[in-house]
Amino acid sequence: MQKGMADSNVNESMTGIHVVAKPMGPMCNLACDYCFYLEKKALFGEGEAFRMSDAVLSSFIKDYVTSQPTPVVEFVWQGGEPTLAGLDFFRKVIKEQKPYTKKKTITNSLQTNGTLLTDEWCEFLKKNNFMVGISLDGPQDIHNTYRRDRADKASFAEVMRGLKLVQKHRVEYNVLACVGRHTAQKPREVYSFLKSEGVEFIQFTPVIERLPDETSRRNGLRLAGPAVLDKDETQTRVTPWTVVPEDYADFLIAIYEEWVRHDIGEVFVMNFEWALNAWIGNPSPVCIHAEQCGRAVVIEHNGDVYACDHCVYPEYKLGNIADDTLAHMVNQSLQKGFGIVKKTALPGYCRDCPVLNACHGGCPKYRFRTTLRGEPGLHYLCEGYRKFFLHIRKYLKAMTTLLENGLPASRIMEAVDAPLVIQLKNERVVP
Q1: Positive or negative CA dihedral for 237, 243, 244, 248?
Q2: 19-44 pLDDT per residue, tens
C-alpha cells in the first residue's frame, strides 16, 4: 500500500546508508515561518556560494553508489529549494549516475516547494523517473498562513501552478503537508482540499521547534538545536507555530476517520501506512518511528556531511566527502553512539507504553520533555502520538485480520461501523 516520499525520513534499520543531498544548501526563494533550515546560512562563512560544485557532485555520486551495499541507491535532493540549482545541474546528476546504472538500480527524488517548476522541468523529471515531493499545506488560507516568499507574498498560487504541471506531465509525485498550530485546527478542510486536487499520496509532518537556547544564539540561530537525550533540557518553550500535541492527534484522527470509511486504496496517507506496518510487526520504514537511527546523513552543497537532516550543527559534522568516505563517516558516528541512543535513552515511561512499537520514542530532536517521573528524553508529541495510536488500533487489528485472510485492507470500509469492529475498541492490544 505504501509509496515512497521525497523525504529524509527513511528506514534507518536497513544495512545501507541513506543520504539527503542539499545542492543549494539552505538557499530558498520562500521564507516559510516554520522552516528550520533557512537559518543554517549563519553556519557558513561570508560570501558562501551555496551551490554544489561539479567536483563535489561527482565525488558524492561515486562514493554513495560504490559504498552502498544494497541493490538500490536512492538519491534524495532537498534544500532549501533544490530547483534553484537549475536544470543543468540535474542533467549533470543523471550523467554522473549513468556509468553505475548497470550494477545498481538508481532512483532520484526531489523535494520542492513547486514554485519554480516549468514544462521543461517536468519533461525532464518525467523522462528521468524522478519522484517529486510537493510542499503544500492545504487550501489557500491555510497554506499561506506560514508559507510566504521573502517579500511576504503568498505562495499558494505558484505552488498550485507547479502541482498542476506535475500532474499534466504525469510525473510521479506526492504531497508533504506540514501541520502547524493553525493548520491542526482544520483537518477536514486540509484533507478534502488535497483530495479535490487529485492528490493520492500524502504525508503529514508536525511542526515542532524550540525557541533559541544559549548555544543556538551563539551560533547566530533563532531556533534551538536537537535535544540531548541523556540530560534534562532547560529550554522547553516552543515557537508560536509549533503544533499542540493533542491537536496534532485530533488532526490525524479526524482525517483517519474519514479515510478509513471512504478512501482506503484510493488515497495513501503515509502516517497511516506506517502505523499499519508497525502493527503487522515490520520494521518502521521511517526513521522517526524506528528503534534506532543514525544511517541517514546529510551532504551539504560544499561536501560537508552531517549526522542527520535535523543535526546540521557544528557538533554533528562528520567530515567532508573530499577527504573521507560516507561509509567511514557513518560508522564513526554510530560508534560514538549517535542514533543508538535513540533506543538506549528511552525513558521507562516509554518502555511501558502500550504503543511503543508504533512510536519508539519519536525523533530524538524533539525529545526535550521530562516524564511525570522526572525522566528526561520524552518526546514533545508524546500525548499526541499515544492518543492517535490508541484510537486507531481497533482499525489496525481489523485490517490485519483481513490481510491475514488474503483479503484487501479496503474491505474494512464495508464494516467499519459494524459491531465486530466496535467491540475491538476496548481490547488492549500492543502494536
Answers
A1: negative
A2: 999 999 999 999 999 999 999 999 99
Ramachandran sector of residue 415 (left: φ over 0; alpha: ψ -120 to 50; beta: rest): alpha
Residue 33 near residue 305 (C-beta atoms within 8 A): no
Residue from 360, 421, 351 nearest 393 by CA = 421
**Alpha carbon of 43 to those of 49, 71, 176, 305: distances in Å?**
13, 35, 27, 14
- Look at residues 374, 318, 307, 314 and name the one whose alpha carbon lies nearest to residue 341: 307
What's the predicted TM-score (pTM) here? 0.92
Burial (CB < 10 A; 0-12, 13-18, 19+), residue 361, is buried
Which residue reads 540530560 in cell numbers? 231
- Nearest-5° Cα angle at 380, 142 to 315: 105
Q: Please, which residues bridge with residue 173 across strands?
A: 132
Least confident of 142-156, 346-360, 410-424: 410-424
- Any idea what DSSP says for residue 293? -
Catalytic residue among 137, 263, 304, 309: 309
* Residue 305 near residue 320, CB atoms below 8 Å: yes
Buried b (16+ CB within 10 A) or exposed e, 199-208: bebbbbbbbb
336-to-40, 308, 329 alpha-carbon distances in Å: 24, 14, 11
Picking from 106, 190, 403, the residue whose alpha carbon sits closest to that of residue 277 is 403
CB atoms within 10 A of CB 315: 10
For residue 49, the SS3 value is: coil
> DSSP character for 43?
G
Q: Considering all CA atoms of the chain, what is the largest pairwise distance in Å, rounded to the nearest integer?
A: 66
Q: Which of 201-205, 359-363, 412-416, 426-430 has the lowest mean pLDDT?
A: 426-430
Q: Do 236 and 212 contact (CB within 8 A), yes or no?
A: no
Record the cell numbers describing residue 170, joined without a space: 504525469
What are 15's three cell numbers? 544495512
Give the DSSP per-residue string, 206-271.
E---BPP-HHHHHTT-SS-----TTS--S---B-TTSPPHHHHHHHHHHHHHHHHHHTTTTSEEHH
Sign (positive/negative) of CA torsion 344, 248, 427, 373?
positive
Instruction: Determine whether 309 is an active site residue.
Output: yes
Label the pairing between strands 296-299 and 18-21: parallel
